[in-house]
UniProtKB/TrEMBL annotation:
Domain Glycosyl hydrolase family 95 catalytic: 287-690
Residue span, Alpha fucosidase A-like C-terminal domain: 692-762
Upper classification of the organism: Bacteria, Pseudomonadati, Bacteroidota, Cytophagia, Cytophagales
Stored InterPro entries: 6-hairpin_glycosidase_sf, 6hp_glycosidase-like_sf, AFCA-like_C, Alpha-L-fucosidase, GH95_cat, GH95_N_dom, Glyco_hydro_b
Residue stretches making up the Glycosyl hydrolase family 95 N-terminal domain: 27-263
Domain of life (superkingdom): Bacteria
Any one Gene Ontology BP term: carbohydrate metabolic process
Keywords: Signal
Species: Spirosoma endophyticum
The protein's name in its UniProt record: Alpha-L-fucosidase 2
GO molecular function per UniProt: alpha-L-fucosidase activity
Secretion signal, residue range per the UniProt entry: 1-19
Length: 815
């Protein structure tokens, strides 16, 4: 490797730093949240979540703890499935979908328990009766510090409240201060929507809660909450249900919460002791140190990535006004704020050894949240983790990977008892108890693919990190899910292709079979099984084991259905050409192959690539929040930055201004109601517009919209252990890129423009990338309907450069 030119790299890094500093990473408002939860600001440490309202006269802090769920260890397999399976399959192949669906509804869908609910713990409320007419009101959530701050003046005194949730110290910390001595007086309440017991002592409130019973499962999760007030001076007083402080100069308030949950099968912990231990450890630490601990832990993750898409005067406006103006105005810094907010949310909602972020992350105030605020694994839970690797938060992927490992245990019994198969599987939902049965009715719940999709995250984690020990430890999970399909696939009557049956193309039904979604061999299933088998084969080969098993999987792979292009030029959703070009359904599951999977490529599968585009055109843009988040990724993969940008404008529209979802005042995504997946989907999509690494190369600026002609990003991660240390672009061209290798190996980059490539090898597009992390998938040629009109466009090839890398070394290319 020749010495590379580093000349202007330092200068460019300085430019990036400068640009980053001018972009204030804050959500801020001129008014309090009032009673509106989606105006309140979320803080969290993965386990504890809080929504801070910032109301001067009554502060409300809504509390969550990630293991406070309804029910107790439980399962929801339907034992009737096995006997009914042959009949359901027969009916499907005979075209009797309505009958098949009716039978599956009885035999496959769980009889009672459709999964448990994620519950709110309660509220801390602080009454400041004298603060009715505040002046100079301001509140913010500072993403650089993960601290929510409220400030205002009353009678010439300046008040300040700062709140954060500490990962290292495991408590919620609130500090209330004033710029005049002895001015802080308030009364503290602790309450819950459930029956609880409440006790107070001089400076402390204690509340015990019991999670509700739900759908026949006894509520056995206990929560314990302690609120401790530590005033600098002044007087404390109490009643049976409140603790008040008078005339303090400042007050430190700790909220500690714990439950008795150890894991999905063990709820024997002592929540009272746990809660007290967290508190007693934290309260010994001075506030400045607590803050320093918090900042250190948070910033070690958050600061890994910076993004500058440019800044306009709109960036000076409060966040709610920016959301209103985004679609029609020019505010690129709101897109970068939204991107960083997605990273903030993942750091706040998903920490190693904890629970995976659920439908609402960790923030839920409802006793009966939408879809139980659990895990829908036919898209939503996976979407939550799309930003994890690419936005350099790989460790935060762990809770989802862990949940997948748990399901690979609980799902063994479901595979065996319901389908007579070895290995493991899950249907389209799960919960903290790792239930794997079918739920919500046959139309939605007959989908034996949850494990197939979740297991992709294990393989992708490996592709990004190259962690051999991780691969070895998780090989049984990958093998287990492949084993399930090995046993479960059956030949369909027309071509004898091996297919999944019964199943659905998530939540959609083909035209002409109204209200019957049940089917065999739907495209998404074929794509998922393809990935499951391919991952298991590659993992086994890398680990040099299981040769006969690998051979058996290769035989199955060769018998899977090819993708098909239907008469409307669309990628077919079902085995038969049944798509309706006017169908606007939010799920476009067969585009799984385009994103997050890497089966469709502008360069390798041009017809399928074009058909996917047609499908997306036909489905339209506006939809529920998560669906629009997915579409950002799809348009990015289709290398169409302007269309991806259009979807971002749809997503960043105020809720209620269009038919589908949008964005709440606090930047939460709206399904509606709030669902966090859309935040994460769009965050991943923005990364995908700037850099992709699924298609044999690190592709820089693959889908840059005209609206972001110049900018910079640092810290994105690519497959093969590469880090984009910095990427600077000007007028749509890559001006400079520095890539760090952690694993070594060939680095191939695809760039829109020529670079000074001294020391680099220009490669022809057709050459295979020798780096095994960039191995392309072998996709069968599609079957194309004679009626399909495919207007083929040549993809932008750009320039492709290869260079050999060494672990730990960085490489720079300039314009
Ligand atoms: C799936 C979606 C819905 C919703 C729910 C939580 O069922 O079809 O839109 O997001 O999950």
């Amino acid at each position: 490797m020749k010495k590379l030119v580093f000349t202007s790299a330092l200068f460019l890094v300085a430019l990036i730093a400068q640009a980053q500093q001018s972009t204030a990473l804050k959500l801020w408002y001129k008014q309090p949240a009032g009673q509106s939860w989606t105006d309140a600001l979320p803080i969290g440490n993965g386990r504890l979540g809080a929504m801070v309202y910032g109301n001067p006269e009554q502060e409300i802090i809504k509390l969550n703890e990630s293991t406070f769920w309804s029910g107790s260890p439980s399962r929801n397999d339907n034992p009737d499935a096995l006997a009914a399976l042959p009949e359901i399959r027969k009916l499907i192949f005979e075209g009797k979908s309505a009958e098949a669906q009716a039978l599956a509804g009885k035999a496959i869908i769980a009889k009672k328990n459709s999964g448990q609910m994620y519950l709110p713990v309660g509220d801390v409320r602080l009454d400041f009766p004298a603060h009715q007419t505040p002046q100079n009101y301001y509140r913010e959530l500072d993403l650089k510090r993960a601290i929510a701050t409220t400030t205002y003046d009353v009678n010439g005194v300046h008040y300040k409240r700062e709140a954060f949730v500490s990962v290292p110290n495991q408590v919620i910390v609130l500090r209330i201060s004033a710029d005049k001595k002895n001015s802080v007086s308030f009364t503290t309440h602790l309450m819950s929507p459930y029956k609880t017991s409440l006790k107070t002592t001089t400076n402390q409130l204690a509340m015990s809660g019991l999670g509700v019973s739900h759908e026949g499962v006894d509520g056995k999760v206990r929560s314990h909450t302690l609120v401790k007030l530590v005033p600098t001076d002044g007087q404390l007083s109490r009643t049976d249900s409140t603790v008040s402080v008078q005339n303090a100069s400042s007050v430190l308030l700790f909220v500690s919460i714990a439950t008795n949950v150890n894991n999905y099968q063990d709820i024997s912990a002592d929540e009272v002791k746990r809660c007290a231990d967290y508190l007693s450890r934290a309260e010994k630490i001075p506030y400045t140190q607590l803050t320093a601990n918090h900042l250190k832990a948070y910033q070690s993750l958050f600061n890994r990535v910076t993004l500058n898409l440019g800044e306009t005067p709109a960036a000076k406006l409060p966040t709610d006004e920016r959301i209103k103006g985004f679609a029609t105005g020019n505010d690129p810094a709101l897109a970068s704020l939204y991107f960083q907010f997605g990273r903030y949310l993942l750091i706040s909602a998903s920490q190693p050894t904890g629970q995976a972020a659920n439908l609402q992350g960790i923030w839920n105030a409802d006793v009966k949240p939408a879809w139980d605020s659990k895990y829908t694994i036919n898209i939503n839970a996976e979407m939550n983790y799309w930003p994890a690797e690419v936005t350099n938060l790989s460790e935060l992927h762990e809770p989802l990977l862990h949940m997948t490992q748990d399901l690979s245990k609980t799902g063994v019994e479901t595979a065996r008892t319901m389908y007579g198969a070895r290995g493991w599987m899950a249907h389209h939902n799960t919960d903290i108890w790792r239930s794997t049965g079918g739920v919500d009715g046959a139309f939605w719940g007959v989908w034996p693919m949850g494990g197939a999709w979740l297991s992709q995250h294990l393989w992708q984690h490996y592709l990004y990190t190259g962690d051999q020990a991780f691969l070895k430890a998780n090989y049984p999970v990958l093998k287990g899910v492949a084993t399930f399909y090995k046993d479960f696939l059956i030949p369909e009557p027309t071509h004898q292709w091996l297919v999944v049956s019964p199943s659905i193309s998530p939540e959609n039904s083909p035209a002409g079979r109204s209200k019957a979604s049940i089917a065999a061999g739907v495209t998404m299933d074929n794509q998922l099984v393809f990935d499951v088998l391919t991952n298991a084969i590659r993992a086994a080969e890398l680990l040099k084991q299981d040769t006969p098993f690998v051979d058996s999987l290769k035989t199955i792979l060769s018998k899977l259905p090819p993708m098909q292009i239907g008469k409307h030029g669309q990628l077919q959703e079902w085995l038969e050409d049944l798509d309706d070009p006017n169908d606007k359904h939010r799920h476009i599951s067969h585009l799984y192959g385009l994103y997050p999977s890497a089966q469709l490529s502008a360069y390798r599968t041009p017809q399928l690539f074009r058909a996917a585009r047609n499908t997306l055109e036909q489905r339209g843009d506006v939809s529920t929040g998560w669906s629009m988040g997915w579409k950002v990724n799809w348009w990015a993969r289709l290398l169409d930055g302007n269309r991806a940008y259009k979807l971002i404008t749809n997503q960043l529209s105020p809720v209620g201004t269009q038919q589908g979802g949008g964005t709440y005042t606090n930047l939460f995504d709206a399904h509606p109601p709030f669902q966090i997946d859309g935040n994460f989907g769009c965050t991943a999509g923005i990364a995908e517009m700037l850099m992709q690494s699924h298609d044999e190369a690190i592709h820089l600026l693959p889908a840059l919209p005209d609206r972001w002609p110049s900018g910079s990003v640092s810290g994105l991660r690519a497959r093969g252990g590469f880090e984009i240390v910095s990427l600077l672009w000007k007028d749509g061209k890559v001006a400079s890129v520095t890539i760090k290798s952690t694993l070594g190996g060939n680095c191939r980059i695809r760039v829109p423009n020529e670079m000074k490539a001294k020391g680099f090898k220009t490669v022809l597009n057709a050459a295979t990338n020798p780096n095994p992390f960039f191995q392309a998938l072998a996709i069968k040629d599609p079957i194309v309907s004679p009626d399909a009109q495919l207007i083929m466009a040549k993809p932008r090839i750009g320039q492709v450069y290869d260079f050999m890398t060494q672990p730990g070394k960085s490489y720079t290319l300039n314009l």
